[in-house]
Automatic annotation (TrEMBL):
Name assigned to this protein: Factor VIII intron 22 protein
Highest taxon above the source species: Eukaryota
Protein's organism: Photinus pyralis
PANTHER family linked: 40-KDA HUNTINGTIN-ASSOCIATED PROTEIN (PTHR16797:SF4), FACTOR VIII-ASSOCIATED GENE 1 (PTHR16797)
GO BP terms, alphabetized: vesicle cytoskeletal trafficking
GO cellular component, one term: early endosome
InterPro entries per the UniProt record, alphabetical: F8A, TPR-like_helical_dom_sf
């Protein structure tokens, strides 16, 4: 990869900006000017689709913001750098030239980790970063590592109902992709439990119905014995059948057809 784009030698410009940060006799480094120059160069690299160079520029800008004591600015630059490194990793994979060392992925994760270290523990951005990483790892087909970040997002979204439900839905989908149907069943069951004692609005009713349908299909796949069938699962099964498995399969087909066509009102 070269550092030239549109008549600019990006690496040379990067070095010139860096000289502004060198200490000189009786003269303080012009950190503010260097920060602005790094962000301008970073935006240029993004425009010409050179995400790795953009990532380098945003890291440099983050260092400047940190030295100026601007924690929000530092965090923002670190996250933007992570976006660019992750974008480069995903693009390389799509082109079939993914590096064995996955240096862009590691750089992205390092930036995300550094950004999180600058946030307060209660900041909602922690969950957002976890979900961003999970989404990117899904695009990289790394479903196992995705699970780790989704579980962390669930743990730290304990006091936000809809965020927690969203994270659990993603975890359920991830588990199904990995053919881990037991974990998927646990996730949708937790969503049902979360919605059990809250008022059923339109959105909540739709989520609940979707989870119950998913729960039925997962139970059909897992085929738990009567001894392992919990009272909650038995109650869900009774909602759609009187105990005949063939009848249950027919009703699941009926449910599936109406859910996919949007005619969910016929199921109520």
């Amino acid at each position: 990869m070269t550092g030239e784009s549109g008549g600019f030698d990006i690496l040379e410009i990067y070095k010139q900006i860096s000289t502004k940060l060198k200490k000189r006799f009786l003269r303080k480094p012009n950190v503010t000017d260097a920060c602005e120059s790094f962000t301008t160069l970073g935006r240029h690299c993004e425009t010409v689709e050179m995400p790795v160079y953009a990532g380098m520029c945003w890291i440099a800008a983050a260092r400047c913001e940190g030295s100026l004591g601007n924690v929000p600015g530092e965090t923002s630059c670190l996250i933007r750098s992570a976006h660019n490194f992750m974008s480069a990793q995903i693009k390389n994979k799509s082109l079939g030239c993914q590096s064995v060392a996955t240096e862009n992925l590691q750089a992205a994760l390092g930036c995300y980790t550094h950004a999180r270290s600058r946030l307060q523990e209660t900041c909602a951005l922690h969950t957002g970063i976890d979900l961003e990483i999970a989404e990117s790892l899904t695009k990289l087909n790394d479903n196992l590592t995705t699970e780790m970040y989704l579980k962390d997002a669930i743990d730290i979204s304990e006091y936000s109902l809809y965020t927690r439900i969203h994270c659990l839905q993603l975890l359920s989908s991830n588990a199904i992709e990995r053919s881990d149907y037991s974990s998927a069943l646990d996730a949708v069951t937790e969503i049902i439990n979360l919605l059990k004692d809250v008022p059923k609005t339109g959105v909540r009713s739709d989520i609940l119905l979707n989870c119950e349908v998913t729960q039925i299909f997962l139970l059909l796949i897992l085929k738990p014995s009567h001894q392992k069938l919990t009272p909650q699962f038995a109650k869900t099964l009774e909602k759609f059948t009187w105990g005949d498995m063939n009848d249950l399969k027919l009703k699941c087909k009926f449910i599936y057809e109406h859910v996919t066509t949007g005619s969910t009102h016929l199921l109520l």
